[in-house]
Amino acid sequence: xxxxxxxxLQFLSPAAGAVLALALAVAPAAAQPRLHVPSxxxxxxxxxFVMTDRFADGDPANNDQGAGEYRPGERSRYQGGDFKxxxxxxxxxxxxxxxxxxxxxxxxxxxxxxxxSYSGYHGYWAQHFKQVDPHLGTxxxxxxxxxxxxxxxxxxxxxxxxxxxxxxxxxxAGWRADDAQRAWRAFQPHAGSPPVPRPSQPPFDQNDPRxxxxxxxxIYHWTPDIADYTNAVQxxxxxxxxxxxxxxxxxxxxxxxxxxxxxxxxxVGVDAxxxxxxxxxxxxxFDDFLRSRDAAAPGIEHVARATGRERFFTxxxxxxIDKPFRDEQAKKIDRWLREGGRPGGRPLMPGMLNFPLxxxxxxxxxxxxxxxxxxxRIRQTMALHAEPHRMPTFVDNHDVDRxxxxxxxxxxxxxxxxxxxxxxxxxxxYGTEQGFTEPRASMFAxxxxxxxxxxxxxxxxxxxxxxxxxxxxxxxxxxxxxTRGVPRVLHAEAAAPGAVAxxxxxxxxxxxxxxxxxxxxxxxxxxxxxxxxxxAAGTVLVGAYGLDGTPxxxxxxxxxxxxxxxxxxxxxxxxxxxxxxxxxSAAPPxxxxxxxxxxxxxxxxxxxxxxxxxxxxxxxxxxxxLVVDGDLARATPLQPDAQGRFRATVDTGAMADPTVAxxxxxxxxxxxxxxxxxxxVDRPWALAARADDPAGDDTGALGPHAGRYVYPTDPSWGPNxxxxxxxxxxxxxxxxxxxxxxxxxxxxxxxxxxxxxxVLFTVFIELPDEGPGSALMPLQDGALPDGLxxxxxxxxxxxxxxLFAHEGASATHEGRPIAPGAAVQVDTARHTVTLxxxxxxxxxxxxxxxxxxxxxxxxxxAGYRSVAPEAGAHTMGGAPLGAPKVMxxxxxxxxx
Length: 896
Known about the structure:
It is a single chain. This protein is of the alpha+beta class. The strands form eleven sheets. It has an eight-stranded parallel beta sheet. Strands 32, 35, 36, 37, 40, 43 and 44 form a seven-stranded antiparallel beta sheet that branches. The protein starts with a helix and ends with a strand. Strand 33 (776-777) and strand 34 form a beta hairpin. Helices cover 18% and strands 23% of the residues. It is built from 20 helices and 44 strands.
């Protein structure tokens, strides 16, 4: 062992340093597992995230621990995935292009919730932070996984939890902050929550405040569940969904957590940590956790350096998604990256999951929001965060709907390409490469959600797509302009789905690396209109990757401008090559052609249809068209006179939002486009229908058991009656629809992304003159009233927002996902949710007169919650399995 390596141990006590050095050196290298390897540059990595229990079952002997926790085929129970299964499938993971494996927490868990309704298969309910859960295997099995990864050039990321343990105690009504014993409840006898009645690891076993010594030790916060996620004290010190909140301000707790998780670095060779629920732990905890110089329990980064890892990577989860053009959550996330979230602040964690970018991906590529919202998020990611390249990025994960639950396959491919070409560490969630729609479905045939077959097909189209995108990202040297470069947004459609383009630029050593990424998020062809690239005329764009084949070569035109016609849902990437000295003469004619002109508008605000005038180059060939908001499918043909002059009318019937900046240009294929003109449309919203709904009728609205339904027994429902619909108001502006849904009460018990939880709204819309619709209620086991059929169906909950057309709908299939989806606004003071659908989502019609709307309520957790004769903690009661899943419903509204 080199003296330099030994010197890395000097922060330890002499005895501890000697023991660790000896442990790393005693055996011949050939006989030792390859547990400890140097850290990579994490900017260049691609993570593959697995829920271990659901990925691969390599050892069926460890599946059933005899406590009723293992029930193959049941979503809420253990299914059998383990370490050996992961080892067996490493070629599959590496073939996808991943360079690191992120696993859910492997520590010993509480196997069943206190009421027995759910299991800890996921790993986030710890009872001992230094033991392997036997469902996954043994410590030796975990070490074999680490060794196998490292021998294949891959790295190991372990999910950890420092905020809480499992759910071993709670507080009932009457809790008081000054009396830890009052209303305290332990879940004993513990037959319903095996394998232990309390954490078995000291000091976390000190969880009974009735014992003065345990109360004084203060290992836990003696608090009930969070009721208000906007309350900073509750967020930091109350229980989240019943999980016992650790007092991470306590030095004893901090030391125990450092010692516990340092163990996995030393004994297994973990290369990085992902920290669950980081928002619920004070930011300064992480400086101590990572960098403490306590010799008995050093910070994780010191432990890692002693094993040869100079860049041990820790990144946290902060579930915060910003509304369009807002940055509150992004700024909050930054407070866990650097002290105070300010430039020059003391470093805390090296990375945080980029939840705001995840939200923008879903909005742009699944829900059809204008890509200008994604462009804002890209710019703000670079502006707000000191090291955005070390912020892991993702399109879906285990805590949210799969992208394909409400999005389309073309949209998913675009989202993946965007993730692979932007700064950040891409995270691939297992099953995405096989087209999964359920967030925690199993990859192996015997597991829940598998459909009775394995899903390790390396020839699956998405698997091959992702592998090709990963190769593009890595480049020939394992790093590229996409892993190190800085994005510069060139264009983003602001009014509707359409074109978005960014340049990636990076200089490392020699000549600068430059690339262009262009996507069309619309379901019809779109125009990228005369964008300024910032590159010299004659710059050659060489096709590097395309979702539908390698794109054609292009040349940047005069003034550094570029115009492209884009196929629907296309995605293309080019490398930019500097122009040659003879570029002007070598450039194609279109790059030197004079551009058409548009006459400035008298006013940029209009109230209806308006005329526009301009001129195209006289004699220029091509079918000239007036293009609004980049939409080539609805472009208006022009008839220029002999001098190229024209006049045309702009149809604004589908435009309703006065805050949206629309653009128009003139273009012909093979010709440059006119510099766009911007305008806004002021169109008032008019009340089209309204219905009040009685209070207290949230007891089932369909079927023979209507009037007998009851809420789940968990106290987060109780008197809140979130599913009691009180009023529905429908407003129209041309062909756009706005629904204002009043409820008994809105809550945010689980910190939902959309601003409300414990209720799901399903809205059925029948459109006039659209032909036969569907009379089915997908997944709700009911029938529509009053002869209603639907052409559009909207499903919106705390984490869900999806719009469907009726084609293909059945009792078990939601129909065809479409975009754009609904914009969601929440008024907690008025307990009102407002949903706005643009005209494009409803067929682009000029009026909604005669349309019918029906609204129902229920709740949703990766699917409509179950109903049973007896209510459970999270199950509706009062009706048999298979009864209609409708707690309350509005009258059918007809729009005028």
